[in-house]
Design brief:
It comes from Candidatus Desulfosporosinus infrequens. This protein is mostly helical. It contains eight helices and three strands; from the N terminus they run βαβαβαααααα. It is 54% helix and 6% strand. A three-stranded parallel β-sheet has the order 1-2-3, sandwiched between helices.
Length: 181
């Protein structure tokens, strides 16, 4: 099972998973997301022949954020707010996995791991991760080989984040070529 987004990592992992087994479930989890992101994820899932379910996390995110702000008496920082989303996604993925008997596929690549760009107990949590030893550049190359549409595989990374500093960091990771021995 994989959390489907419009990015190169999740779509490459989805394609690899489908090569390994027909029993793949894609979970689309919009959470104040751009509409085209959901459309891209569903398009690739259809192209790959992956069954999908949708779990809209917008209300859960809003309720939790408001409750936290009320409880601690201050507005949440941009980074805290941004990290809530992948943690909610992982909660949804593991709930579905438990009910349906799936393993959760990770989508973190080596460039993200080296940079520390993942959310603890969010997108950094998974049962297996087939791209964990590949740099972001290698994921792009593999995605192209697996037939992921060019406009998706070459799309600028966003992870649903709006902060400029996060986008700049993610762009750096897309070009980072790190080898760990």
């Amino acid at each position: 099972m994989i959390g489907m987004s419009s990015g190169k990592d999740s779509n490459t992992v989805a394609a690899l998973s489908k090569l390994a087994t027909d029993n793949v479930l894609g979970v689309v989890m919009p959470c104040d997301s751009v509409a085209t992101d959901k459309q891209d994820a569903l398009r690739v899932a259809k192209q790959l022949g992956i069954k999908t379910v949708e779990v809209d996390l917008k209300n859960s995110y809003s309720t939790l954020s408001q409750s936290l702000e009320k409880g601690i008496g201050v507005p949440l920082s941009l980074m805290t707010s941004a990290n809530i989303k992948p943690r909610l996604r992982m909660t949804a993925l593991y709930a579905i996995a438990q009910e349906k008997g799936y393993l959760v596929a990770g989508t973190d690549n080596l460039s993200e791991a080296v940079m520390g760009y993942f959310t603890k107990w969010g997108d950094g949590s998974f049962d297996f991760c087939p791209i964990s030893d590949l740099t972001a550049t290698e994921v792009v190359e593999l995605g192209k080989e697996l037939g992921i549409p060019k406009e998706i595989i070459e799309k600028a990374p966003s992870a649903g984040l709006k902060q400029r500093s996060c986008l700049e960091l993610m762009s750096l990771m897309a070009t980072l070529k790190v080898k760990i021995w």
